[in-house]
Model the fold of this input.
Amino acid sequence: MKRSKSSRDWLDRHVNDEYVQRARNEGLRSRAAYKLEEIQSRDRILKAGQRVVDLGAAPGGWSQMAGRIVGPKGKVIAIDLLPMDPLDGIDFILGDFREEKALADLRELLGGAAVDLVLSDMAPNVSGVSSVDQPRAMYLCELALDFAKESLRPGGRLVVKVFQGEGFDGYIRDLRSTFRKVVTRKPRASRPKSREVYLVASSFVPGREG
Done:
């Protein structure tokens, strides 16, 4: 099948992308690892021995980096509806986080233990129609926040990818109702034309609303 011009242009940009080349040379699963690396350098969200849940983990760039930092005394649980090649020390759940079965599997792996950090790089399949894509993206963000409220220890953190648009301001208000500090990050590894930003919510306060 002949590729369209837009597909060829995307492939060219991808192959020539600085972060794609770096990831390949440094043995990282994806260029997304550099987004987490920059957030880590600014906000110190990851520490040795932490328990971390990575939502929307495939192909594993964030889990790979998180696992290196939390070390053998920590624990990283990754979940995605797409398959992910195994990573040493990382527990992986193949399942759709929107469905109760995957969430039950995740709870079972946690065994009732509280989580230090929830990472969410989840994004919907893009249709190209903003009125469809934006609500789908915000729904995933809301699910990540619901899970964080359920699983985080007091003082824990949530890092979530959000696309700027309808629902963005309201979501930040929701974060601020349960976390003492919320900052917005646009890592250099995020493509300039992308509307994605990352919200880093710190100091979780259980039961705090409004």
In short: Residues 50 and 74 are 5 Å apart (CA to CA). The longest helix spans residues 130-151. Residues 30-204 form a domain with the Rossmann fold fold (CATH 3.40.50.150).
